[in-house]
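## Example pair
The file below holds two records. Each record gives the amino-acid sequence first, followed by its structure token line.
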Amino acid sequence: MYIYGKNVAKEFLKSEKNLKMIKKVYLQDQIFEENMKNAFKNAKIPVEIIQKCEMDHLVNGLHQGIIMVLDAYPYAKLEDVLEKSRFLVLLDHLEDPHNLGAILRTSAAADVDALIFPENRSVSMTSTVMKTSAGAFLHMDVVQVVNLNQTIEVLKKHGFWIIGTDMDGQDYREIDYQGKIALVIGNEGKGISPLVRKNCDFIASIPISSKVESLNASVAAGLMIYEAKRNRK
């Protein structure tokens, strides 16, 4: 897996634990920063200087002259997350990697404990997601589960209140976000699935003008996450 960009690289360099995820680093000739190269070498990570055309062949995005090679993303285990979490965000088959990256960044900023989403028919932790999150993925537990509805049942048994986001629900500003909660953000086009909606304890709606059909998933998630954070003080 290739991860790229200077901001992401700087986040990796803040933690010895994170640096252990990196197997190799490619830096672009002529524009690489000497201090960054030395930092990776001091961490005993192989560094190779290559030309821009070679870097462009490796990744399609804006690499800014640095590409890091990682093993597969290390997802957290649900059972480990449950032991220490009180504020979770569940994603019901989100498809856009940019939305996932943005939600990761917002969640990390708002001290969400973990993100949870299903393995199938859902975006996963790709290079685009990690780049969009600007390194926030390094500060968040992310869990992939086989079945989201079964996971919701597990969360309920552990005392979590499940708060879905959908139309025709209660005003999101009137909901009690105290205690152990899990916010559910739906698919970009379909919203949350009927069964997931049925399993929610509350349905929160964000009032919008009739001129607009719906909000972007990451925008809706940001509003919900910070409303919950504000009410949990």
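Second record, same layout:
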Amino acid sequence: MTFSSSVITLEVNNHIATLWLDRPEKRNAMSREFVADLPLAMAAIAENDAIRVVVLAGRGKSFCVGIDLGSLIGGAPKEGSEKLSGAASNLKQIKVTRNFQAAISAVADCPVPVIAAIHSHCIGAGMDLVTACDVRLASEDAIFSVRETKIAIVADVGTLQRLPGIVGDGHVAELAYTGKDIDAARAEKIGLVNDVYPDRDSVYKAAMDMAEEIAANSPLAVRGTKFMLQQSEDLTTEQSLLLNGLWTMTTTLNSNDMNEAMMAFMEKRTPQFSGS
């Protein structure tokens, strides 16, 4: 599956995909095009068995300043156009919201790990996006904000659902109720990001270094690990253990990668995994 977009760029090199938010003139504010194109980008990644890990980063001065309200809400109705009823207008709005939710969920549903390399602004919908990632790294100048209460709306694209699984309830409540900005040091302290780096270039390098470390492991094992982590969110411990055992029996023990791992151990060399 080929992918092209005017607002997102997908690069693949040595089993690592870099997904660039590529609207620097708007500080990567999320437009209608972004909402339409992000699921297509994630589908292209999922279909490419050569990709073992994804790095998500932003071009330009900011990672993402949130929603481009003008693009997503649209302008005033054209003169002479039919006026929608309240019901029809509400249905139209819920469709916009559900499409946006699906776009962000496409990142969370990615079968391989996604690492966010965050610099400068990560506001509103930017938080929705990074909370859908597996790992978050930040530059020292990063600013995070669940901004929605400051513009009189309830965050509805994923932050309120995913942030509680990342940081403690008290921190979620503080960020969501106040809409305040926090810096990278506070984000690291509460566990929103794993590590903080001096600048944009160094956080991207750190994300790529981590991606290379992941990509060197068995693709089947990494995909299986992510699958188990995803499924365990909705299962009891006993159900998750059973599923885990079935995965090991049907996949891990029958893989060429496991045989390669054993041979490499005995031969005292680095394994070369094929993902088969």
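Notes on the second record: The chain has a mean pLDDT of 93. The first helix runs from residue 32 to 47.
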